[in-house]
Amino acid sequence: MDFRILHDASGRELSYLLADRETAEAVLIDPRSRDLPVITALLREKRLRLRWVLRTHQHDHLQPMEFARLRQLGAPVVQGEARDGARTAPNGEYLDIGREQIQVWATPGHTAHCLSFAWRDRVFCGGLLALDACPLQPYPADAAALWDSVTLRLFTMPGETLLFAGHEVPLQAVSTVWAQRRAHPWFAQMDRDAFITHWIGSDRATCPQTALQG
């Protein structure tokens, strides 16, 4: 399998391309429509057929043309939020890509319908750990659900599991479950009640930097 990180420096956002070399099938995770010229050129250069477009989360109410533009890639758009033209995937479903499979996890909290995607030893978790990093929504939509998604799903994975974010921090696009369990400024240093109380309060503007904004 080929694995490539696509970095949008202007928005400090990260997308990911996985491709099976033998079948020439590919999947994009969290592509941005403004990157379509680069993405289509890359797929053409590598002679790849796009199998899936996977979205960990979306803010289409703030970007009304984003979904329609991503559909121009010609592959099913998989996301947690149901809408015309989207493919919703139940928790635990496996999506085939060549000889490989990617598992869909329901991980709500950053938005109500967030997904994460698990492949081999890594999880693409979008905005799951980036409580204040997403410029379109710098706070959890559901603090209780987010706490449970992180602590009961993500943090139960082996410590060496790699976590790939949707938003960068300087010199860091990837972390591990072990590092985040020990050092995340929210989930490693607060309990559930304190976390929920903070995020339903009025002091969202005074939040600490997240260790891995993803």
TrEMBL record:
It comes from the Bacteria. Residues 12-167 form the Metallo-beta-lactamase domain. InterPro entries: Metallo-B-lactamas (IPR001279), Mito_Persulfide_Diox (IPR051682), RibonucZ/Hydroxyglut_hydro (IPR036866). This is Metallo-beta-lactamase domain-containing protein. It comes from Hydrogenophaga atypica.
